[in-house]
Amino acid sequence: MGKIHSATSLIAASTLILFMGQIVSAQNCTTFDYPGAANTSLNGISNAGKIVGQAESLGKWKGFVYDGVTLTEVIVSCDKCQSTIAYGINQWGDVVGSYFTGDRDWGFVMINGGPVAISPADAVNSVATGINAQDQIVGRYTDGNLVVQGFLDVSGSFSLIDVPQGGRRVPSTSITGLNDQGRITGNYLDNHDRSTDSFSM
User: Which CATH number fits domain 34-200: 3.10.270.10, 1.10.3710.10, 2.120.10.30, 1.10.10.10?
Assistant: First the structure.
């Protein structure tokens, strides 16, 4: 069982959340540490309250799902697989993320316990970051020209997502999530000052 710590009023009072352009104090904050891990990151939460994340020990990452009571490991197993990260989960418990094979990352979706690789045809790296109730999947990948692009995967059919800027393609577009209505969020690298900016669509 992971260590679950309810935040004291002092911690909660000092924790701030940016909401609708305003800063408000968090009223209820809970911290989480995966047992035996040196580092833990929570990456996504479903409408049912299930949380996905990643835990690192001795340089190796593994994904997990936490439902408030039980921790379930999310690990893609293969001959070259070294690490697994879980980034998103939908209301049905389907999980997306990435696994590392030593030379590249592969996006994956885990439905009914079995992982399926998610990777556009020309990808040299791919990461799946979000999944909605319709099993639409979003993420990012690096193509053969080392340009990072976003993608939307609907039943195995990929649509590429790039942010146009002044008629030019930006050097990097990453998709961070989507909801059940198909709204997508992400970020991109600005053509002008190379800063990271955000978008929704």
Answer: 2.120.10.30
The SS3 call for residue 35 is: coil
**Residue 177, φ and ψ in degrees, nearest 5:** 180, 170
Over residues 93-146, the pLDDT tens digits come to 999 999 999 999 999 999 887 899 999 999 999 999 999 999 999 999 999 999
| Domain limits, the chain | 1-31, 34-200
Which whole-number Å values give the CA distances from 3 to 38, 161, 164, in the listed order? 13, 39, 44
| Residue 95 near residue 75 (C-beta atoms within 8 A) | no
Predicted local distance difference test score (pLDDT) of residue 114: 83
Backbone φ/ψ region at 112: left (φ over 0), alpha (ψ -120 to 50), beta? left
pLDDT digits (tens, 9 = 90+) for 41-97: 999 999 999 999 999 999 899 999 999 999 999 999 988 999 999 999 999 999 999
- pTM for this predicted structure: 0.82
Q: Which residues of 92-112 are buried (b: 16+ CB within 10 A; e: fewer)?
A: ebbbbbbbbeeeebbbbbbee
How far is 88 from 51, CA to CA, in rounded Å?
8
Residue carrying the six token digits 């439905």: 111
